[in-house]
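Figure S4 source data
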Amino acid sequence: MKMEMTLDARQIRILMQDSMELGVKKTLVELGLLTPYLSKQQAYKMYGRAQVDRWLKEKLIGKIKDGTNTSSMRLSRMELEMVAKTSNRMSWYTHYVTEED
């Protein structure tokens, strides 16, 4: 199924602003001014527990564990930022809504 999408001027402006913000954060991470990873608790505070858990469940973001089952989990700041900036409604739709024939 081929989907065609058109963007109006407002949507293009938001897309450009989000892209610039992501670029700035990526630069800050590369310069060492921001940490590249967040703890799961930090991500919960920034984006909300339900969102982060859904993103993990749908594998929109990956988790990094440094040790055994009891070790803490790290999440990539840039992955979180990108998923938060994009409209992830389509992924929710494909995971939770079933089409009826």
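Figure S5 source data
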Amino acid sequence: MISYLLNIVNSEFLGRGEVKIMRSIIKSKKGISPILATLLLIVIAVAAVIVTYAWVMTFTSSTTNQAGAILTVENVRFYTDTGTDYVEVVLRNSGTAAAKIAEVYAGTSSTALAPQILVTYDPNTQLVSEGSSLSIIIQYNWEEGTRYHFKIATEAGQTLPFSELA
């Protein structure tokens, strides 16, 4: 290998001064000192740790923000007011992020749920803040003794299916 490099150095492309410098570089047996090599390895290792830490923190923060809302059904009440049947569902958010209700479904079977149009919210923002509750009032014809199935969907795609006996 060295002889090959020396032949290149002796080629006609380089001048005399350049040939001497190239010969001295090729014949030199010196490398970097062990202290410098150790420091270089430490710097590379620290840089790798910093990059890994940044990636892990980004990944975990985005994952926990997506799953921040934890919705549970606190109460379901079937009642009639001035001849109209209603179902009131109280949701509680015990998570760390707010959730906005996008759609409410109801039916007599978990496989035949229909989206409900006559729905009111208290508060009317449809937003369940972290640590608070939301009352959903559905105008729905119900009969006592029948089991009804519900599904509440958030804008983030989270669904909360449950059933209740009237």
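The longest strand covers residues 71-81. The chain has a mean pLDDT of 84.
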